Protein: Biotin transport system permease protein
Organism: Paramicrobacterium agarici
Amino acid sequence: MLGQYRARDSILHRLPAGAKLVGLIVVVLIVAVPPPSLWNLGGGAALVVACFVGARLGLGELWRQILGIRWLIVVIVAVPMLFLPIPTVLATAARVVIVLLLAAGVTLTTRTTEILDAVQRALQPLRRFGVNPDRIGLMLALTIRTVPVIAGLAGELRDAQRARAGRLSVRAFVVPLLVQSLRHADDTADALAARGVE
């Protein structure tokens, strides 16, 4: 989901990245903090649809984003259902899905560089307390860049498993993914060290 900017001509695309991030934080607090109700969950869902339609991304893009987090949805519903009442689990899952889709709406309408610049500007006042905004910006950039890389590795492993055995094996999927992810982290660390970044 992250780092997949879609160029369109819409009000959301033209809004400054800082305004969108502040708006996202406010909406997340409204959806996540009060007890779940039809008002905050229904309003959040309506806002998600309005965000994707208003940004000219379309309901097809919204569906693709939902499909992208389908396994996460399964996990956050299936595991807590063993210990918690079903209405509580479904309300929590709805909150998580709304927040993730709103965050996707921000990343789809905002270039990654604009998000990083906004975060670095917001952190500038903290420089006097020893916070290094440039280092935090670099950390965010690496995190945002790593998400699609890991997703790409997972897709390649799934395709390879289907080609070899025709069915998916959790053990044969997780271990190679972990090894390749760690190898990618080592390569990234070596590249940063070669450029003098500690």
Remarks:
- DSSP finds nine helices and no strands in the chain.
